[in-house]
Amino acid sequence: MNELTILIVDDDKTTSSILNHMLTPFARTIVTAANGVEGCELYKAHKPDIILSDINMPQMNGLEMIEKIREVDEHVKIAIFTDFEKREILVKAIELGVNQFFSKPFDSKSFTKMMKSMSNEVMDRRRAKQEIERQENILHSMNQMSHNFLQESDWEASLSQELTNLKDAAQVSSIFLYKNIQDKKKLTAQQLFCINDNPEAKTRKSINYKTQHLMRWKNKLEKNQIVNGCKNDYDKSKTKLLELFKINSLLILPIFVKGKWWGFLGIGDEKDEVLASSHVEMLSTAASIIGAAINNSKNLKTLQMSSAVFEHTIDGVLITDAQNNIVHVNNAFLEITEHSREFATGKNPKILKSGTHDKQFYQKMWGQLAKEGYWQGEITNRRKSGDVYIEWLSINTIKNVRGEVENYIAIFSDVTHQRKDAHDQAHLATHDALTGLSNRLLLDDRLDHAINHASRFGKCISVIFCDLDNFKPINDTYGHNVGDEVLKIVSNELKKVLRKEDTICRFGGDEFVILVEELESFDYLEKILQKINDITNNPYTINGLTIDIGMSIGASIFPDDGITAKELITSADVAMYKAKKQGKNCIEYSKTDIQDYCLLEMNKSISYAI
Fold first, then answer.
1. pTM of the prediction?
2. Are 593 and 556 in contact (CB under 8 A)?
3. According to CATH, what is the number of the domain 4-106?
4. Over the stretch 45-81, which tens digit does the pLDDT of each residue have?
5. How many whole angstroms separate alpha carbon 579 and alpha carbon 509?
6. Which of 94, 189, 365, 575 has CA 20 to 30 A from 438's CA?
7. Which CATH superfamily is domain 130-297 in?
8. Across the beta sheet with 511-516, what order do the strands follow?
9. CATH topology for 431-601?
10. Could you count the other beta carbons within 10 Å of the beta carbon of residue 517?
């Protein structure tokens, strides 16, 4: 959490000093600006993860600064110090995507809770993004390695590039490859490749297992076992080797060719911790690919002999023949798809189709396979249970010496949870966190779309502006928790009386805006408005308290009251205030005389143009 960069924007030096002290547990870097102009400059220079800003400042106020920042960054977390009584500031802040609000003086407990929440969201998003990128990079690296090593006659020609790519994808500091050489009675390992991020690192061109006291490692490797540990886990002779390599953790896996121990592939890192199982699985697959490449594996038979290529990876693998019938799958394929090996063998991969993609999607995929020999992308498939999942898929074409297709190899990983996290983030960006209703961003989008549709086909739509009467006294008397429950109850009741296709938006505070499309008649609109008005006719019981509340409602109609989203919302807002003046808990239209609405002529064929 203390890896974050936080920007404070406040012209009060005392406030900035207090915040600096309170934010120390959360930030690696804290920068401070005295106004919005400085805030924009420091944002460009430091790209902070969280921004805390006052509203009223000289030169450029907080909202103006936030508006400029939001033009280039939709994700940075922003919290503002504000007076909660100033509705126009809250509305503007919500429009700009402000994430949190708090007032001065800062309550230590509430402030800490808010910062923990915002910091956790930033770190979770960062970790999810890094993990997705790492998985995709590893998958791409393994796919490219299998393509180059298994199809090229001289696999060592691409050895340097492929192992460098693998090191970078695995995010370790060193990678090396050694080949065993039997000379009389002496077995040594000769270095074929080594790269290390540390410029002071040295390596041994030749390793004698016996004289350099590495017989324990030799015995494990020739039994197809791994070596994985930290510097402190080993004796002095092995520690010297790690010190020479300038690494604190080491992972070595054997390479076998035709059942004989050929050599080993290893990675090391400066971090003093045992390398994770994901690194073991990755390196196991790489070692198996190298073994198959050494054995000049270009076709299915050799790939089947080197089954570790498929069985020692967390990614699903399937191989088909030239007619695209499955001839081999690994255990990860069985776990991800839930199909048995017996069922999958001989079938076309179409058994996994979810119906999500159209014919053109598959035509494009096969077109690239035919032209380029590979395809990579995201695809949605279905498990045996019927559950849909998302996978990152790479397909390679395997050809014989005559250039004829013999097999297709597909490697895929299940990225459903990562994509779900992204989907949840998108949902939070367009919905109100308290009620689950649409927010203003989503309302604006749907209202623009509805206006275009109505204009094109001569339809009428309505915007309904609702404001709860006497809501502030409820918050002041019973507290915000009770007020929040009132908002949730009203939201749920609105969902019950409206159609699924209608958009209900929590516009801000105790205000709701409703978009009703495809109006059938004026009577139909009146019935909807009456149902909405009836929601607050009876008192609510919350925590044993009887709460009475009313609702003032204003309605505008397209195109009579406006032809843009802003005009329709403004007209409905004005009508709502007319209802307030009429004594509250009633309905008013934008036009004084409802006979003036062309909605009464709805059955006629009318076309409007903006």
1. 0.40
2. no
3. 3.40.50.2300
4. 999 999 999 988 988 998 999 999 999 988 899 989 8
5. 18
6. 575
7. GAF domain (3.30.450.40)
8. 503-508, 511-516, 461-469, 550-558, 587-589
9. Alpha-Beta Plaits (3.30.70)
10. 20
